[in-house]
TrEMBL record:
Pfam families: Fer4_7, Radical_SAM
Record SUPFAM superfamilies: 4Fe-4S ferredoxins (SSF54862), Radical SAM enzymes (SSF102114)
Domain of life the protein comes from: Bacteria
The protein's name: Glycyl-radical enzyme activating protein
UniProt lineage: Bacteria, Bacillati, Bacillota, Clostridia, Eubacteriales
Residues covered by the 4Fe-4S ferredoxin-type domain: 50-82, 93-122
Cofactors named for this entry: [4Fe-4S] cluster
Keywords: 4Fe-4S, Iron, Iron-sulfur, Metal-binding, S-adenosyl-L-methionine
Domain Radical SAM core: 19-311
Length: 319
């Protein structure tokens, strides 16, 4: 198969993004991630296959609609309990989806005109994706922006990402790759010539704690960061600040030391304080909320962590 016809699985494309690299950007989110961060704000990114999503805000309920009840051959959709319509005092009976039975076939989405049910995860060829994101080129040109490939872990689809980045560079679009760094070194080597900026997550400097909490050790991640730096790549480090996990001054100091050791490769360090806005997204895909629910770190705490990083001569922002 020629590179431009290669297919990848995308779960979202967001235009006018200003958080994912310089200027105005279009960010492409790919399905699938080998990590399992308890604070993940994109639960739809974790699985590699397409998934059924149900949004209570769009569902108009069984009394007015109920069309999906009759189409599921697996019997995964049944009447749910009577509850209050979101944001009102009105009673409504929604549907209940049994996720253990649902095989994500997508048939029910075809009858749901209000858009309560939809499939999360769509296949794109390289060609179609590049055509789609290049429509925003005037915005990139005006703002110094470009395209960011994100996930999930985008490099879980390494050949697809390689072909997309290569095609974007051929038409002179600035490229950024948002990665956990948890991938084979050869995947990093392949994309390096076509990636203007790596957005690189550093979660914890202690490998044992890293593995305990996100499911994988950190050695490969740290090695790949060194690999990028050695090859002359540019890195924007992202540190999610997670209560009781990586928010100690000691861990942030060690992270600062590591960033400093990467030399001029590190152009910016971003502190991303934990927030709990991902909870409603979980409810669209899972029966129960699995996301971490904790008190966000205080402004004072974040400011202190910023100062620790700045002491290493790093440029640090808070998002
Ligand atoms: S078809 Fe859609 S809007 Fe109608 S009851 Fe089912 S989920 Fe709700
Ligand atoms: S996606 Fe398929 S199996 Fe799942 S609830 Fe809808 S119709 Fe049933």
């Amino acid at each position: 198969m020629s590179g431009i016809n290669l297919k990848g699985k995308v779960y979202d494309i967001q235009g006018f993004s200003i958080q994912d690299g310089p200027g105005i950007r279009t960010t492409v989110f790919l399905k699938g991630c080998p990590l399992s961060c308890p604070w993940c704000h994109s639960p739809e990114s974790q699985a590699f296959g397409s998934q059924l999503s149900w949004m209570s805000m769009r569902c108009i309920g069984i009394e007015q609609c109920g069309k999906c009840l009759n189409v599921c051959e697996k019997g995964a959709i049944t009447p749910g309990e009577v509850t209050k319509k979101s944001g009102t005092d009105e009673d409504i009976q929604y549907v209940h989806i049994n996720r253990k039975i649902c095989d994500n076939c997508g048939s029910c989405t075809e009858v749901c005109y209000p858009g309560g049910l939809s499939m999360c995860g769509e296949e794109y060829t390289v060609n179609d994706l590049v055509d789609r994101v290049s429509k925003d080129t005037p915005f990139y040109e005006q703002s110094g922006g470009g395209v960011t490939i994100s996930g999930g872990e985008a490099l879980s689809q390494p050949q697809f990402v390689f072909e997309v980045l290569k095609s974007l560079k051929e038409i002179e679009i600035h490229t950024a790759l948002d990665t956990t760094g948890f991938t084979d070194g050869k995947n990093i080597d392949a994309v390096l010539p076509y990636t203007d900026l790596f957005l690189y997550d550093l979660k914890h400097m202690d490998s044992v704690q890293h593995k305990q909490v996100v499911g994988v050790a950190n050695e490969k991640i740290l090695e790949n960061a060194k690999r990028i730096a050695k090859a002359g790549g540019k890195i924007q480090v992202r540190i999610p600040v997670i209560p009781h996990f990586n928010d100690s001054q000691d861990n942030i100091r060690q992270t600062g030391e590591f960033c400093k050791s990467l030399g001029e490769a590190v152009v910016l360090v971003q502190l991303l304080p934990y927030h709990n806005l991902g909870i409603t997204k979980y409810q669209r895909i899972f029966d129960d909320v699995k996301v971490l629910e904790a008190e966000p770190p205080s402004d004072e705490k974040i400011q202190k962590l910023k100062e620790i990083l700045e002491d290493f001569g790093l440029t640090v922002t808070i998002h």
